[in-house]
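Weekly modeling sync, notes
Attendees: S.R. (lead), two postdocs, one rotation student

Agenda item 3: backlog of single-chain predictions. S.R. asked that every request posted to the team notebook include the full sequence so nobody has to chase files. The rotation student volunteered to paste the first one in as an example of the format we agreed on. Action items at the bottom.

Example entry:
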Amino acid sequence: MRGRTTVPRQFNSFVAVGDSFTEGMVDPRGDGTFRGWADRVAEVLAAQNPDFRYANLAVRGRLFKDIVNQQVPAAISMRPELISFVAGGNDALRPGFDLPKISRRLDWVVGRLSDTGATVLLLTAADVTFLLPARRVIEERAEAYNDVIRQTAARHGAVLADLWRDRGFVDRRMWGSDRLHLSPAGHRRAAGRVLAALGIPVDDALVADLPPATARPWLRARSEDLRWAGRYFAPWVRRRLTGRSSGDGITAKRPTLDRMTAASTEDLDGGATTQR
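Predicted structure, as returned to the notebook:
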């Protein structure tokens, strides 16, 4: 078995690799950039270590092969102590999703990352299928791929944050208005699950369940469905038909391994969550 099985409570460096989930959509900062679970985890690690450095290479819309070919070599060259790898979500939403092929590639890349001596962090997808059309197909793919991720983590001694088994994500307020990316509340919860998986003490507020939501009248719910279809689903379909990506022209927000500023306690735990 390769990779570390004992996780240190302090890291000197962290590189996050992936797609929009790791980039941080839709968890905006005041300056218009995205924060997300990886930045939130990095902020906690920076609070423990003034010399901590962080890079986030993730770019929205990237497919598994693009992440492996473009981001993994760059991450390895930085020689961080912690590397997160999350990829395949965009592939799973496309026709012709080849799970055996993705599984083989995942096993190879996690082995390659583990061979560097870094602690490798994997995450399963949180369950958003209750908000999406073609739920049965997407749910079957997600469950199958999440099983592959679990098996791969066990085989290589990687750290696993299993978001799929956290039913707290099956709440509309954990997801943004696009019904595909985590809301700020969702990213906070994901960060809490990652920190716990890394063996780092977690404030209960990060992973606490939200209070009961107010009921949504049927007419309002259908109206929201129509707005979502026009604003988000239709453009997604057009991009698939034209071969375009939401990440066209987008570059990594933190492409180099630099010092990370620790967030205040209010930043780590705060952020109002509206009921929708």
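Discussion: group reviewed the output briefly. Strands lie at 13-17, 53-56, 82-85, 119-123, 159-161, 254-259.
Action items: rotation student to repeat for the remaining queue; S.R. to check formatting next week.
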